[in-house]
Write a structure and sequence with these properties.
With about 600 residues, this protein is of the alpha/beta class. It is built from 19 helices and 27 strands. Helix 10 links the parallel strand 18 and strand 19. The longest helix has 22 residues. It binds fructose -6-phosphate.
Length: about 600
């Protein structure tokens, strides 16, 4: 998704902007550009494709400037090309800006501006903003007032950075629905859509909130509303290091993040289990725990992988907390006028904390008076800040577009929340203790599964040319079947579907032949016998089979073509183990197909537009 970085200070901004944009590459983009002021003249350089191409272009131009902004674009309005790339400039090249988000009323605004004689160069919604601001400047307003006046006419979402060559001492930034953070340095300041872009320079940051406009000079910062009311802002210290963001010696971020899971799980669990009581303590939920325990219904809302985590959460909450639970796609929830009662608690699960649909669903639920709770990975993200309370997953930055460690940490947090609620209801201390003990053992068990990496690579070699896959699981492992299929399709571009295993006979069985590999998630639990019958049905039709099975299950080897054996745990926690071989399988197949694992085509890490 689009990225923003900006600099004002005493150093040459060009390398700072380029390095910042490289840090944002992981979000996914299709074009890149920067704008600077050199001797009171605006210079905009942009291109379709990679930041490295932009860097080559800039090297030839040998530019120097103390103020500039840079952007990576992920196309929404208009194809990826140089004209549609940001920054966008006004006609006399004095104002340029970069924009994340979508201007919903851009067509109306554009019509009006064309009537005033403005000419548009791009197909983007963003370009209206620069002409709208120009229109106010031409009426005699300064840049800050012009931005405030322009934004009061705009409907939609934006993270914006604007520079004007006639006021070269400032960058104006504005936020509504798209994240922006200001970095505070020594005689220099920064702006970015994601702290990783500026972390090499400062750890002191100010998060802009929706509706805020910031004037950033090299030695000062102030924030106002669109109506020019002053806003006091607090400076936060970032604890994340750049090392955390690097690949750490692995070929891809995705592999690093899969391998990190023993550690990320320890981080998700740290300080949160009360062994004696067989319960958990979650600081972020302390103020709402009674309301949560007494809630009549829980709704879990999320997108993609986080939605799959929600499905597992539904099984946990209903089995142990005995609270009716529903799981909703955020994109559906936000538009269907959901019925929300006063005793409902609604969880919003999001790795990035910035997913547009989840954020919009959250705002809808909040407006209807629900108790809104977050399960987020990105600290200080919009969802984390908008919710009444919540729990951080502490998985650390996830850079690979395909979510892996964030998923297992979400499941871990859902299990901790289950303990928190269930122990205050009907779960006994002994049963709570068993869950707590099993949670503690998970990191070691994951370490064991990760030693199967080579075996899984061999299986990947065998199946890398398949064009379809079916994933089947039951109970707690039905969502894992969905997640395994999603992992495979998003990075290997192989069509894959996940189903509850018993549903196979209601349709998908027609697809089974020797060209259809079927992955069964078949740990020894109460549904084991039934899944064995499903395996037999597939074998009888010539399908090739892979099973994720329990380490003490010797029988299954006679039945399937390949088995991947994992340690046993209690049923509710099996998804945290069964998903790991599926992550590795998808990873190795994609690598063997020579694909860009960390930045798959058409995908973005953080989907901040609808
Ligand atoms: C899949 C994946 C996506 C995200 C989804 C929600 O690997 O990463 O399906 O899970 O876009 O993102 P978050 O969790 O950031 O809200």
């Amino acid at each position: 998704m689009c990225g923003i970085v900006g600099y004002i200070g005493e150093r040459n901004c060009v390398p700072i902007l380029i390095n910042g944009l490289k840090r944002l590459e992981y979000r996914g983009y299709d074009s890149a550009g920067i704008g600077i002021i050199d001797n009171n003249k605006s210079i905009v350089v942009k291109n379709k494709g990679k930041v490295s191409l932009l860097e080559d272009k800039l090297e030839e131009l040998n530019l120097y400037s103390n103020i500039g902004i840079g952007h990576t674009r992920w196309a929404t309005h208009g194809i990826p090309n140089e004209l549609n790339a940001h920054p966008h400039a006004n006609e006399d090249n004095t104002i340029f800006l970069i924009h994340n988000g979508i201007i919903e009323n851009y067509q109306v605004l554009k019509k009006g501006l064309i009537n005033f004689g403005y000419k548009f160069k791009s197909e983007t919604d963003s370009e209206v903003l620069v002409h709208l601001i120009d229109n106010f400047i031409k009426k005699g307003y300064d840049l800050t007032t012009s931005v405030q006046l322009a934004l009061s006419e705009v409907e939609g979402t934006y993270g914006l950075a604007i520079v004007y060559s006639k006021e070269p001492d400032k960058i104006i930034a504005a936020r509504k629905g798209s994240p922006l953070v200001v970095g505070i340095g020594d005689n220099e300041n920064f702006i970015a859509s994601d702290v990783s872009a500026i972390l090499a320079h400062t750890k002191q940051v100010i998060y802009l909130e929706d509706g805020e406009i910031a004037v950033i000079k090299k030695d000062s910062f102030n924030a106002t509303t669109v109506h020019n009311d002053e806003i006091e802002k607090e400076i936060h210290e970032i604890t994340m290091t750049l090392d955390e963001i690097d690949r750490g010696g692995y070929a891809h971020f995705m592999l690093k993040e899969i391998m990190e899971q023993p550690e990320t799980l320890r981080n998700s669990l740290r300080g949160r289990i009360i062994d004696d009581e067989g319960s958990s303590v979650l600081g972020g939920l302390t103020d709402v725990v009674n309301k949560l325990v007494n809630s009549k219904r829980i709704i879990i809302t999320a997108c993609g992988t986080s939605w799959h985590a929600g499905l597992v959460g539904e099984y946990m909450f209903e089995q142990f907390c005995r609270i009716p639970t529903e799981v909703e796609y955020a994109s559906e929830f936000r538009y269907r006028n959901p019925i929300i009662e006063k005793d409902d608690a609604i969880f919003f699960i999001s790795q990035s904390g910035e997913t547009a649909d989840t954020l919009a669903a959250l705002k809808e639920a909040k407006m209807k008076g629900a108790l809104v709770l977050g399960i987020c990975n990105a600290v200080g993200s919009s969802i984390a800040r908008e919710t009444n309370a919540g729990v951080y997953t502490h998985a650390g930055p996830e850079i690979g577009v395909a979510s892996t460690k964030a998923f297992t940490s979400q499941l871990t947090v859902l299990a901790l929340i289950t303990l928190l609620i269930a122990r205050r209801k009907s779960l006994s201390r002994i049963d709570g203790k068993q869950i707590a003990d099993e949670l503690r053992l998970l990191p070691e068990k994951i370490e064991k599964i990760l030693t199967l990496n080579d075996q899984i690579e061999v299986i990947a070699e065998e199946f890398k040319n398949s064009t379809n896959f079916l994933y089947l699981g039951r109970g707690y492992n039905f969502p894992v079947a969905l997640e395994g299929a999603l992992k495979l399709k998003e990075i290997s571009y192989i069509h894959a579907e996940g189903y509850p295993a018993a549903e196979m006979k209601h349709g998908p069985i027609a697809l089974i032949d020797e060209n259809m590999p079927v992955v069964f998630i078949a740990p020894k639990d109460s549904t084991y016998e039934k899944i064995i019958s499903n395996i037999q049905e597939v074998k009888a039709r010539g399908g090739r089979t892979i099973a994720i099975a329990s380490e003490d299950d010797n029988d299954i080897d006679q039945l399937v073509d390949y088995s991947i054996k994992i340690p046993n745990t209690i049923r509710m926690l099996t998804p945290i183990l069964t998903v790991i071989p599926l992550q590795l399988l998808a990873y190795h197949i994609a690598v063997k197909k020579g694909l860009n694992v960390d930045q798959p085509r058409n995908l973005a890490k953080s989907v901040t537009v609808e």
